[in-house]
Amino acid sequence: MALPDVIEIEPLGAPVEARVTVPGSKSLTNRALVLAALGRGEVTLRGALWSEDTQIMVEALRRLGFVLRVEPDPAEPGNRTIHVRGCGGQVPPGGRRDAPLELYVGNAGTAARFLAAFVALGRGWYRLHGTPRMHERPQAALFAALRQLGYRVESPNDRLPALIEGGGPRPGRCEVSIRESSQFASALLMAAPWGGWEVEVQGDNPEESPYVAMTLKLRDQFPAQGGEYVVEPDASSGSYFWAVNDPSWIWPRLDRDPAELDPSRWPVQVRRWPPPELQVDARFPGVWQMLLSAGHASRGRSRSLEIEVSRERDLGDAIMTAVVMAPLCGVICRFTGLGRLRLQECERVAALRTELTRCGASVVEEGDTLTVCPSVLHGAEIRTYQDHRMAMCFAILGLKVPGIRIHNPACVAKTFPNFFAKLAAPPPDGLGARIRDGRSGAMLGPDRLTVVAQEH
Fold it and tell me: Is 317 a catalytic residue?
């Protein structure tokens, strides 16, 4: 049975001891699928995320003619083992201009951008299209770079839908700006060795862009001649569970023993937590530790301390988790460098401000900065804007604040189909949360809390 259109999260009555697993990284899974298809021989991806975004990539590669075999992962229901047979940089041909090979990318930015550069290595015409929101998201910098390399891209507004004529390998040089999305550079850099492309990355601190760095490190360490690659757990998804360790749990322990601020001693842990070499959001426990420490130090002061967290320096998508939980931290939090959040699944900066304010939080939006002050929160009807991260962030807030009702919770299918099942599973594998149908009030069992990922 499907998730109801509205659910209500009941606050946890007391701290729980949990050791939770989360599915594989979406960013790494979709990069690994592309690199495996470009490589020689067969690559087995273990711990690969199986969600809406990664299924879209698998289906697109199959439609192009690649052979992929998908098997269950006994260790994590949200993962799959995926076998990919590479073609040594040869992309199967597309269609004619008047009958192109159609590729649907949904609202998956990684699929939309990675496939645009990928199909340029083929021959013939390909048409990329997706959801209405994906048709609003930027593509211009990537299309401009492909044109510099001599490929033909037809799009009246430099967004999707777009027609791309593959021309095979075309050695040359291009420049690409990552001001709007680092995925533009990642798309080109993965295909560059096969296309003979020299890619110059421009924009906001390109050398330090964590997602471009992820792409380069993965490309260098990937078994391109065949073999096995293990996908790390998704650090952005793991941030929700680390954030359950909030001030009401940590500060009393900290008063007794200063060492309790060490994340390795927190009641809720995420298993197989990766080092921050590939995923910038693996830094989340340290950033959360900093906010909790500052909030503890602010107690008894006439004015709270002020802490800055930057999306450009400290975190990626997990900064949304910190924003939503910040009113509980007892410290004034300035979240800076949020401009790219406006161009993702929804206009996330405005969405975060709007929904937090709906819960009673004091939030100020100035440019691409959100300032969140300590606040007394209350329940509210939370709109998710068809954005998986909005749903998951506010669900965690609902574990702390009574009366949080999440609209369209099924949007978590994009990256974490069994998220609500994880919340409700008994400890230590879950948090033991109680989740109700927001209309009828009926308690929801495990069969209602996973968005079923269809096998293809």
Answer: yes
